[in-house]
Each structure stands twice: as structure tokens, then as C-alpha cells.
From TrEMBL:
Chain coiled-coil ranges: 132-180
Domain (DUF4349): residue spans on this chain: 42-247
The entry's keywords: Coiled coil, Membrane, Transmembrane, Transmembrane helix
Pfam family, one: DUF4349
Transmembrane segments: 227-247
Name of this protein: DUF4349 domain-containing protein
PROSITE patterns assigned to the protein according to its UniProt record, in alphabetical order: PROKAR_LIPOPROTEIN
């Protein structure tokens, strides 16, 4: 029983020691504007804003969403999408895909409207990937040693229960670490694209006029409400002025009527 406890303590100490990290991992493909060598752990996020006619906002939105769903070759994943046809017509789409798929989507958006802004943000994930690999190796090594210790536990039920419980904990941590590492590699191997579609620069001449007429009643009621609120603040001061002004004027006249002393 004492040997089992010593073994568990030794394995817990091993869990705190990391092994040498590997420099492996697939290098991401060239991005929109190329990619420098030695930067295989970079995560790219692209932002594109396009301006088009009001009538083309929704069709372009639907075309981009459909193109992403159809691009299984590049693993395009639709993360978020919304379209607003209310006061200001605009749409937003967030997608994740391989660099080749991102280039196709950017070309599609640019061909359907005027690109007003375009930018790329890069995040270096080299350190998180290295730490993730070290943790995975540590947990796998710890799991293997626990399994070996489980085999050598023999008929010692108490020791076997403790080792089995520790094995279950390690298995959960190993699954979580594997999922976290897979998420990091997904961010490296695929790019994030945010597309904003609007019609601010190409809205019709009568659109602002119609919007103003539509909001006339609301703006009128808001103006009346603001006027009433302002009157509520001004009224007490007006009453005080009406009451005190005659007294002040009378006092001023008395001061002027007092003869000066020689």
C-alpha cells in the first residue's frame, strides 16, 4: 500500500514537468496578400466592407451565404449572418474557411459592389500551440504511467480504486486539451472573414426624404415633449423673476434717491 502511494506521488510530480515541444504542425497556406516564411502559426482575420445599391444588398447577402454553404472543398463554415432592411439597409456575414475559399468569397463580394474598406488582422499563436502540445504530451505520458501502475496494483483494491479515479480525471483533462489544440489548429489552417454590405453611398435620392416623412410624427412628438420638459425647468425661474423684479427695481430707486454725504 505504501508503494502505491509513493507511485502516485511520483506520477503527480511527473505531471508538473513538461517535455520538449515539437515544432511540427501544418503550415497554413498563403493568405490574401501572401505569407512570409517561418510564420506557420499565424491566425488571420479579414474584414471587407462593400457598398452596393439598396436593391442589391439582400441578393448579395444571399449569394455570399449560398456560396459559403456550397464550398465544401474549402470547408467554409457560416458563423454568423444578419440582414436589416429597416431604416438603413445593411447586412453582415462572418465565415471561416481555408485561404483559397476566403479569396473566392472576397472576389465575389468585390465583383458585386464597391469595396470601401479592406483589412487583415494577424495573431501569432506559436506560444499557445507549443504550450498545448506540451500539455498533451504530459497528459499522455501521465496516462500511460497510470495505466502501467493500474496493471501492477494486483489485488490491492484500495490502490486500484485510487489509480482508476486518477485515470478518469486524466482522461477528462486529455479530452479537453485535445479539443483546445484542435481549435488552435483550426484557427491556423483556416481564416476568418467578416463581410459588411451597405448602401450608404448608393441610396436613392428620395430615400432620406421618405425616411424623414416617415419619422415626422415621431420627431414632432419628441420635439413637443422636449419643449414641455424645458418649460418645466424654466417656469420656476420665470415666476421668481416676475416676483422679485419689482422689489429689486423699487430698492434700486430708493438707493438712487438717497443724497450723498459731503
Amino acid at each position: 500500500m505504501k508503494k502505491i502511494h509513493m507511485g502516485l506521488i511520483g506520477l503527480m510530480l511527473l505531471a508538473g514537468c513538461g517535455s520538449k515541444g515539437e515544432s511540427g504542425g501544418q503550415s497554413s497556406a498563403a493568405r490574401l496578400d501572401g505569407k512570409e516564411k517561418g510564420s506557420e502559426f499565424l491566425a488571420y482575420e479579414h474584414n471587407v466592407s462593400v457598398d452596393t445599391h439598396e436593391a442589391q444588398v439582400r441578393p448579395l447577402y444571399e449569394k455570399v451565404v449560398a456560396a459559403c454553404k456550397a464550398d465544401t472543398e474549402n470547408g467554409c463554415l457560416l458563423l454568423d449572418s444578419s440582414v436589416d432592411s429597416g431604416r438603413y439597409v445593411h447586412a453582415r456575414i462572418s465565415m471561416r474557411a481555408k485561404p483559397a475559399g476566403i479569396r473566392k468569397l472576397v472576389a465575389l463580394v468585390a465583383a458585386e459592389g464597391d469595396v470601401t474598406s479592406q483589412g487583415t488582422k494577424v495573431e501569432d499563436l506559436g506560444r499557445p500551440v507549443l504550450d498545448s502540445k506540451k500539455r498533451l504530451e504530459m497528459l499522455k505520458q501521465y496516462q500511460a504511467q497510470l495505466q502501467d501502475l493500474e496493471k501492477r496494483s494486483g489485488t490491492n483494491v484500495d490502490a486500484l480504486i485510487k489509480v482508476t479515479k486518477e485515470l478518469a480525471t486524466v482522461q477528462v483533462e486529455l479530452e479537453q486539451a485535445t479539443a483546445a489544440n484542435a481549435l488552435l489548429m483550426q484557427r491556423i489552417d483556416t481564416d476568418l472573414l467578416n463581410v459588411a454590405i451597405s448602401a450608404e453611398g448608393k441610396q436613392s435620392f428620395w430615400r432620406p426624404v421618405k425616411r424623414a416623412l416617415g419619422n415626422f410624427t415621431e420627431n414632432l412628438s419628441e420635439g413637443v415633449a422636449n419643449a414641455i420638459t424645458a418649460m418645466a425647468y424654466i417656469l420656476p425661474w420665470l415666476i421668481a423673476f416676475v416676483l422679485l423684479f419689482p422689489l429689486g427695481r423699487k430698492g434700486w430707486r430708493r438707493l438712487k434717491g438717497v443724497p450723498r454725504k459731503n
